[in-house]
């Protein structure tokens, strides 16, 4: 059957040799038109184009697969009509290799075929989100550690001290992370980061006044003030038309006169002076008024709102002079400069880590593709891009409104634009651009929308208005709402007749009026329902939805897809859409199920909080580190062990004075005669599994654990067993995926899972509901995009918009730059910055534009019936503030649209703009469904019992219990312990503890001062004592490692390779002989490959010579001659319940005692610093050696512990105890 195309659709299919932008309204059949155009190009055009000479870019893999399938089917259909057509046979073969793909896949294709241009290892892979987040956190921590250790770090420390919150630097780290992510949406991230300083490089107050950002503030304020005049004029007209309010009308005329001359105001200073002159007088007093009180109050409230708006503008933007603003900008410049420096350093560090590990994300791949296709200096297409350009006859981009700047630059580079020929075909709907959080830029679509012409031209725009999805009532309602709330100033699009939806579908006659169901939480008639639901607003709204679904099931009708005739509504016809379903969805689903309505939440959350996953993760945590109370208690109480509360309490009481986890381990070991069969059985399993941790892949460890404990079978037998089993299978798949990442081991797997939970990289519980199951679906509006449903509930409309991205001290806008709150550290003050205020306002307006588009997507999902639901905390107050605009083709005021805090703040005023068409009111108590009687009765009984228990409670006992609950856990620090530590970590941790226990926040721990050196000018340096090179200024090497750290490693390696017994043959007090010996030894080490060129260069021979001349070297030479000298010996030992590992620099046996020596290259000024810093480390080494050499009852101890400081050139005794 031939499809009948509209004239606009025909144009889209047939026009050639130009750039085409198709603005396709919701439900306008754009995919069908796109497929038809492709088929015509490859099968009908003369000459036809091979399909592999076309690039078709879609937004998702599913969309790409569907389009390939549809094109393939169309070719097969034509082949049936013309079986001998050679071109059709050729296209049928080529379609499987055609580039019908996502932009990510195309970029990957470009990089894989041109990796050599970037010196990129072709063996790279795409990392998963959690692995990349772990890499990011580790790289960020390293960058901050390096900056703490730097000598010239005054600006860095100043930034940390000023902008950190509490006792850590996480707030500043978050700022760097935010800048890094934002940079990823820019085509040239480093250039963009450097450009952020431009705003702060303004040289004078006059230059600031002429800047774009200040001009924006003035223009924005003018718009709001003009609306103020309109509001006051409407109030005056209402007062004039109301008998008895003539005095009000006079006052309002005076108010309006205050704004005279506003059109002539120019510049910031001019607007500031104008605003300062505006001073509203007191409103006239009307003592006797017999007219309409509501109108009187309305006039007063309109005037108050206008006054409030003027005061708000003054306070937010004009509270300080331009000179003061310039001073503020100057004071913030060093902080912004340091933030940008840090961000660039982190960007480079992250790139180095990714390159080293050969792990990238799709943003990296896009940027690699851009660097291959565009020259960064000239910004012109490269030779590779020109090759692609020759190859592709046409570039087709679906969902163009969701493109970002990088993707735009890539596709433009391979188009024929630079040859003056148009071959780009872009289709989308800017009103459905809802991926701003993924850095989509709807502005790209709008730039073309506003510059392309609808007439025949090289850059042509075609609008597809007709909607083939929805009933007239749905389209009328959507148009009515959006005529009033979407305009160019908010939402990017002027919603006019060109943007409106026009009916193209036919449905059987049936009244399907859109509905708005509003709950007033202050309604006294609803108090009983509100009380029953414990005031939970989501549950109350869910009961309202449940009641409406019930009535739909009883008498609602929809059109059958197959027959085209009306039939009764089924649950599968209904969807409930909400902005977010994180907690909301599960609550609604639970209420619907209580009302006997089957419901299914389609979400990406809930996986990690499911019972079976929680139990398995707790088990993994204690296998990694058993000294964790909560995971240990969770496992013991789970079906794996099966202990009840009383048995857990017995363990607690049997081993007092230790943590619960330690008590459990003691009980499992049967200490103090403790016997429990369950624990004994679990102890055997636990020891077997713990023994396997070190060398077993995580997915295999999971299989072992599930098999040994029988937990997989138990979970399968629980209610919803199929879903639980699928959840566990997903965890095993996740573990197998983790094994392919650059991280290894159980400790990092637990971190990997933690990071997924923290950043909500959740998978959603395994989905057991099929497409055709008869259930009500609950999903986010984003998830519903591209789908359609006969009956759509759009719910949670009273919930406030998420404004988190404008709450922090730092706000970032890709064009305006950075805005920082002004802070000082001494005294600690905080003051809003005008630049930040404007950037925040711009971000807020763009976010509101996005919310408008999200609402548009929600309303256009409905085929036949649309029902909106939401709650108001006080309906009466809300209705007083809402203003409609009855004038056709005019939206409600900008101030009202911009001031919206939730969707109802737009929907209600829009509906009030059509008083003859829509009524807005709240629902009464009869509109709420009751939960099933059994469920309510069960709840009531438990509540009654609880009240009875409370009233009969023993006061003394209650007091004792209160004291118990006030108990502070003594072993909280054990929770974060790992199962294995290096000695350096223990030393580092002890420094942190020492630091954290100090009272003064600004005091820096000693470990941050490691490798420090006081700057000494060249002329004052003592080459003999301090070294001949200016280390404080040493650059980092390519890998970002400080040369000081590399020098330490080099010295250690030389000392390890030095032949000490040869020292017995020379006079170590003869400088010439010692110097010759060191030179010869190091030359031989280099020749044999024992040290690298860098190590040779970094090791200063004088330092080694000084050591060889020391007494301790002579002792080592004698020990080496006897065969009693040991160098660089690793060890692992048990220390207070955890494994400690380390490497001992050197030790020797002397007179049946062990002498322990540690080399140090730290930059210190006194021996005491090294003793304070390293005595713990040496004690651990001594303990390890004591255990190794104590055999057959004979004890040999490392009683003499020495440090040799190459910096101080002296041997330091940390301990010398000769026990008899």
List keywords for this structure.
1220 residues, alpha/beta, 6-stranded parallel β-sheet, 28 strands, globular
Structural class: alpha/beta
Strand order of the largest sheet: 3-2-6-7-1-8
Number of beta strands:
28
Per DSSP, the total helix count is: 47
Q: Span between N and C termini?
A: 106 Å
Low-confidence stretches: 933-941, 991-1035
Strand residue content: 5-15%
Rg? 37 Å
Fraction of residues in H or I helices: 40-55%
Sheet of most strands:
6 strands, parallel
What's the mean pLDDT score?
A: 86
Task: Report the principal-axis shape.
Answer: globular
Question: What is this structure, in a nutshell?
Answer:
It is built from 47 helices and 28 strands.
